[in-house]
Amino acid sequence: MEASLNAYQDEQPPLQAENFCRKHEKNSKLSGVKIDIEKLYEAVPQLVNVFKIKEKIGEGTFSSVYLATAQLQAGCEEKMALKHLIPTSHPLRIAAELQCLTIAGGQDNVMGVKYCFRKNDHVVIVMPYLEHESFLDVLNSLSFEEVREYMFNLFKALRRIHHFGIVHRDVKPSNFLYNRRLKEYALVDFGLAQGTPDTKIELLRVVQSESQQESCSQNKPHLTLGNRVSVNVTASRQLNSQPQKHLINGAASFHKCRLNKEKEERF
Ligand code: ADP
Ligand code: MG
């Protein structure tokens, strides 16, 4: 008994220290998020009048996603997800992601888009917010029927995007949002998408496949531009000199882009 009591007492300091560290980590994370939110308001001041940004709900290499509320005219608040793409993202890549959401999204479990804000090199895509589970949290408790429904709804989303000639290339649990209670699903994140040869997404036609890239890399120097895209140097300069409003139409003439490989886990 004494021995076990001693063992228990021995464990106390490390436990307390661990709790303290966790609390400290949580607090510094919270203040880090607050700072990020302030910075986002500063970078894109148009957001201030429209959204109350509440918290960060996702952070990847290429973007941060925030939960925000918007005050609607009718007086009620609507929840939205604000995706702030890292400023080094290539404009063509951003425009292609946006075009996928705009054209294919909003139906059949494919996330849609509500607005897009830009100031200088900061772009924020505003989407309807879908509250969702962490897939790992529910994985072991899903029933056979739930798995069946999950897969059915995933295929529904994929059928829709494939109809538009979009190859998502990053299908994984964190990009397929799942609300278990409401049985709602949404495919998100077209940051790596490519087009089939007959794609209906104009901007994906200029995002070349890796195999095409192989042949062009022999002739032209390439520049990696941060967000999963590299373009040949000539195209990059031309692209950067274009005013933003010409981006969507003008981008079609900028070819020889390629996606960099990403080492994220897939399904
Ligand atoms: P990234 O390109 O950084 O991976 P994603 O578009 O995949 O960005 O979003 C990252 C995370 O943000 C998602 O895994 C999800 O948790 C959350 N998220 C993205 N869009 C929404 C949305 N419309 N509603 C709710 N959460 C979202
Ligand atoms: Mg993602």
What secondary-structure arrangement, pairings included, does this model have?
Layout: H1 2-43, E1 51-59, E2 63-71, E3 77-85, H2 91-104, E4 115-119, E5 122-128, H3 135-139, H4 144-163, E6 166-167, E7 176-179, E8 184-187, E9 194-195, E10 207-208, H5 210-217, E11 222-224, E12 229-232, H6 233-241, H7 247-250, E13 257-259
Parallel strand pairs: 10-13
Antiparallel strand pairs: 1-2, 2-3, 3-5, 4-5, 6-9, 7-8, 11-12, 12-13
This protein binds adenosine-5'-diphosphate and magnesium ion (MG).
Residues 60, 174-175, 189 line the site of magnesium ion (MG).
In brief, what are we looking at here?
By secondary structure, the chain is of the alpha+beta class. It has helices spanning 2-43, 91-104, 135-139, 144-163, 210-217, 233-241, 247-250; strands spanning 51-59, 63-71, 77-85, 115-119, 122-128, 166-167, 176-179, 184-187, 194-195, 207-208, 222-224, 229-232, 257-259.
Describe the structure.
The protein is α+β, with helices and mostly antiparallel strands and 267 residues long. It has two domains: 43 residues; 216 residues, Phosphorylase Kinase, domain 1 (2-Layer Sandwich), CATH 3.30.200.20. It is 38% helix and 24% strand. The chain is built from seven helices and 13 strands. The chain is globular, with a radius of gyration of 22 Å. The N terminus and C terminus are likely disordered. Bound molecules: adenosine-5'-diphosphate (ADP) and magnesium ion. Magnesium ion (MG) binds next to loops. The site of adenosine-5'-diphosphate has 18 residues, from strand 1, strand 2 and strand 3.
